[in-house]
Amino acid sequence: MKNKGFTVLESIVAIAILSLSVAGVFSAVQQGLSQAIIAKDEVKAFYLAQEAVEIIRNKRDTNQLSRLGGGSNNWLSGITDATNCPFGKVCRADAIDNSLTFCGDAWDSCPVLKQDSNFLYGYIGNTTNFKREIQIEFISADEIAVIVKISWTKGIITRDFKAKTLLFNWI
To answer: Residue by residue, what is the 3-state secondary structure of 102-164?
Structure first.
């Protein structure tokens, strides 16, 4: 007479194989979610850096338009002044009040960004894990380099993103 059904050993082996396959699927899903969170933070960092460049570009263009209208502003007025963002120093950009503010002499001297009730990033509201810092380098009388560093922490890992662009005196 043939024995029908599974023995205890066969059942244990089947459960072990099933457990390993389910654990592999859970691991893949967890890693996919982690990568999605990292990608989301990298996209935010890119846009925060672009926003800082646009604040400076807007100030430069406003100065240029003023000069075309007969104003006497230098093309870097309100950008590289001592209280704003002197050459070689580190400063912060606030999109809410369209300002540049001196932070210190080296990277990591600016405070972290905050997010207000309208989800705008600035320095009022709830603390975020992003820090935005800007450094402006003098290249010539008609050219500057703008370097924006965005850093953030997720868990115990600190990441950063740097963007550099050149701005010109177009008048």
So the answer is: EEECCCCCCCCCEECCCCCEECCCEECCEEEEEEEEEEECCEEEEEEEEEEEECCEEEEEEEE
